[in-house]
Design a protein that fits this description.
The protein has 181 residues and is mostly beta strands. The chain is built from one helix and ten strands, in the order αββββββββββ. Strands 1-3-4-6-7-8-9-10 form an eight-stranded antiparallel β-barrel.
Amino acid sequence: MKKLLLIGLLVGTATTAMADKYIETRIGLNGFGTYNHDNSSTVYKEKTSGVGVDFAAEIMNSVNDNLYLGAGIAYQINQENKNANDPLFKSVPVYGALKYKIGYLGDSSWETFLKANLGYSFNMKDGGDHTPKDGLYYALGGGVENDGVVLEVSYQDTHSKVHKTNYDYSRWTFGIGYRFR
């Protein structure tokens, strides 16, 4: 908890120095995921089943007309491991965000963007007898936005360790959100 507060304080201090700010909230559905894990030198891929859900909030600040920097936090209910019917863990990533606006989609008012997140995920037990460790979190994606409505697709990856096995939970997330100015 101390780490989370310290990261939040540092990110909050850094983001108040920039001028054009907005808050974005988003809900996302996770699909096409895998739990990659290693037991010794072999890496195993296990498919997921069901749908995971993400709830995220970000504060973004304009660096120039096209580039935005900020910070975010999310609560993620991860998909189940298809083999074990077990999601292994839930995640709360705290991350820095970079968003680059590319331009408009044809003659429409929908503006396109690319986005990257990098941070630390606080992982917690979600049933079973395992206690996951915290680890690296990152996401790469893009989307469109118009009049505050944001549609986004991203590839996300959360790292953890359960018992003595390293887990890498990767998935595609399809999100819809709203930008508050």
